Amino acid sequence: MRKRSNDNRHSRVRRIQCLLAVGSLTIAAQSVAAADWQPDRVMLSGSDERVWVVAASKGEADSEPEVRFWFSADSAAPGMTSAPKPSPNIQPVTGNPIFAAADKSSLRVLFADLALWRYEPKSLPATDALFVLQSEREPLAFAGDAAQGITWFLVDADSLARPVSTSQADDEDEVATQPAPTTQASEKPTHLALLRLERGFWTRIDVPAFAAGFDAYQLAVRNGHIHLFWRNPAGNVISYSEFQDDAWSPPDVAVKGVVIERFWVGSSLTGPVLIVGSPAESKGKLNLSIAFENEKGWVHSKPIGPSAAPLAVSRDAVAATIACNQLAVAVIDDGAIQFAWGDISTAPTIRKTELSTVIPTLDSAKQRWRDFVQTAVLLVLFTIVLTTRREQMQTPAAVPRGYILATVGRRAMATLIDVSPAAILILLLNWDFIGPLLQTYGASDAPVVQNPEVIARQDRIWLLFVVLYGGWCLVLEGLGHTTLGKRILNCRVLSADGTAPTGRQILIRNVLRILIVGLGVSGVLVTFMLLAMFTVNRQRLGDILANTIVVQPTPTPSKIDESNPFDDRDPRDDGY
Known about the structure:
It is a single chain. The protein is α+β, with helices and mostly antiparallel strands. The chain has 2 domains: 33-354, Neuraminidase; 364-553, no CATH class. The protein is 25% helix and 30% strand. Strand 17 (237-244) and strand 18 (247-248) form a beta hairpin. The longest helix has 29 residues, at 452-480. It is elongated.
């Protein structure tokens, strides 16, 4: 759906751990020259734990803008310790972003086609719940809960999607669907509604009529406490209403008496904060100030700046928010993104730094080394088996009367059954990580790049799966010489001489099972190739080294039709 690009990297394939039979996740890249990318607009959003920066280039006539992302590290305590940085996990995409909102755990970006995407620091981007099925137009405001994983949309109630009745759909012999969005948000809506998105589920809250009819809105939300702000440009007034305990407060005034060209809001630990953009001395420039509520009411600060001189920024090249209980500002200046942050006070002073536009890339050397080690281990094992156990591999085992060697298909089915308990447990324990991976793998037309943290967690999940699966099989075979899958398919493990296997043999074959499965898809493929093609006793590597076999009961012979299939008798001899 959206194109992911990466600096100077060839396409690679990483496992999405075959415990879920999902296959492999492709990691692809296209070259992106950092110097060629110039930001044209910037968006900023924050929560109690981090700040997000989203910037888009100017779209060409035949292509959409390129969008890039930055975010700060987790903040255990209030206050930012470092500026946002790009990550190889969140690669540039093409699209036209119109809103960005961060909640406690993630960033949601709404694009012009009303596609909603979710971005997380330690996971892969994924398409999110379908906003286009809720509203036919873009929202008037969009915000995340600073302390919870909940996102809020302020919409024109008249734009809410109206489901087609079942009878009407039957008459038209089609399933009711919503049309693609064709209009933008109404400038002065007459009816408002709030949409709440949590874990893919939508709920609606009606907004009082006194908040309708204005041209600019902002939301600030923390722990379910909602502040809705709107601007009355005629009176240079910003008003607001609070929603708490299922009720809206009467409207009140937060800022008045200043010229307000733009404004933003955010949530601090003590309440909402307004960032106001007022005309500066230079034409087309803005000075920023903040307003917040204390025990005396709303107070308005001096202009924001890195020193006594106020910061003057271009009206359309600035964004501001509250993140980690601090003021955050992003400005486009001479083709670069300047990020500034400072404390919330009546005389705010900010620190500035320039954000890097170089997209971090994955160092493939480590992965190449791991692939080499895996291949080397397989080759060594394969060579040892072929050179030291050649005679054993070609000597028929002493299969007891009433049994035959288990077929490759039956053993494969038993393996799938044995894998299931460990796979299900891993799914339940790590769905917060695996779910977005699966959604991205299934929904995206383009491959996605993973960062080292994602790869490290995949490896930990895979290791846990291998240990659970191998330990489960070791215990069951040690107790009853069979596993759950083998028992269901009526198979069991024997020594190659037809006797019950010893504990040493069970240990060897299961240690080799853990090693081979731990090597991934290549290890599993090699062992099944060996089982099916090179041994007369249908043994995998673990069976060969442990000198064991897997057997199944001899099939019950079916009644044989002894009639001659080529009967040359004249049918007339039978009376026809």
